[in-house]
Design a protein that fits this description.
Blueprint: E1 2-4, E2 9-11, E3 17-22, E4 28-33, E5 40-43, H1 49-63, H2 67-83, H3 93-98
Antiparallel strand pairs: 1-2, 3-4, 4-5
Length: about 100
Amino acid sequence: MVFQGARRTREWTFENLLGYHNDGRVPVTLLHVANREKVSGLLYDRAQAEDVHFRLALALAHHAHEVDGFIDNLERQLAYHERSRPAPPQLPAAARHALPTRRLQ
């Protein structure tokens, strides 16, 4: 993985990746690699966080030849989300009667 910033370029190889952490409070991904003493990482705009997290997970799945399992996991999460979606709220009867109706012509 390569990050090219305005002041420096950083490179991390997946072979040396021991682990990573997407921080929930700050839009940063911390990377712990075997060939560095200190943990390093990427800081990005909060609006880009979901995209960065998804792309990193997908890249790691490709590297590990586990894309099918990655897709299966996404499909299970989507199915769970669909099953647990709450029903839309019901309007009180008085509010339903106050809504304007359209006449068909």
